[in-house]
Design brief:
Elements: E1 2-8, H1 15-24, E2 31-37, H2 64-82, H3 94-113, H4 118-126
Parallel strand pairs: 1-2
Helix pairs in contact: 1-2, 3-4
Length: 138
């Protein structure tokens, strides 16, 4: 079963809450959802920028057209996520592989100079300083 983790920036039930609920609706039968709320973690200030929401942030105050548009877009997005095969390892593009290579070389050097260096130990324990790669999940 697929596992979904949702991190909410607020406990208010405004537009973002409604959109999240719409998005998660198709996953109810197919996924186990866990939700966290940042304010409960003691994070006092949370700033959010939304480019498309230029009017009210109260769902009931949005026009029917705007609500319909949001609902359609969120449903399309959730459909896209439903079609992903989460059993298959994700593809990693060349840029990420190159970045990992440079980080690996740096971690190898640091680990050779100081075997107790925490990041180097972490990489060594996982085998990333050798042939193993984090993107190849089994």
């Amino acid at each position: 079963m697929m596992k979904i983790t949702v991190i909410n920036g607020t406990e208010k039930h405004g537009v973002t809450y409604r959109l999240k609920e719409l998005f998660l609706q198709p996953f109810q039968e197919k996924a186990e959802t866990t939700e966290y709320y940042l304010p409960r973690w003691g994070i006092p200030k949370i700033t959010v920028f939304t480019g498309k929401l230029m009017s009210d942030i109260v769902w009931e105050k949005l026009s029917a057209r705007k609500r319909s548009q949001f609902t359609k877009n969120i449903n399309r997005l959730s459909e896209k996520f439903l079609t992903v095969n989460y059993e298959k390892s994700p593809r990693t593009n060349v840029i990420i592989k190159i970045k990992f290579l440079f980080c690996r070389m740096m971690q190898q050097s640091l680990h050779e100079n100081d075997p107790e260096y925490l990041d180097g130990k972490y990489w060594a324990e996982r085998g990333w300083l050798g042939r193993k790669r984090p993107r190849k999940v089994k």
